[in-house]
Input
Amino acid sequence: MKRKEVKRLLKEHPEFESWLKEDEARVKEVRRNPGAAEDLFKRWNDRKKGRLDFDSISQKTRRASEMLSGVQSIMDMMADYTKK
Output
């Protein structure tokens, strides 16, 4: 990875840049060897994937609950109709 590509990567992912700045050793490694930024980015991205996004989980759960309640109401209507 060239310096220009590293700059573009840091510009596109400011969270990655702040993560790099947390540890001086990572900054030195990237300055010494710009190709190491790609490996560090992969490591950062893998670490980030391990976190749970509770907002999206709760949104999906809410949608599923709405769908299930709709299906339940249809089933109740069908049950009432068959009783008559």
Observations:
- Residues 16 and 22 are 10 Å apart (CA to CA).
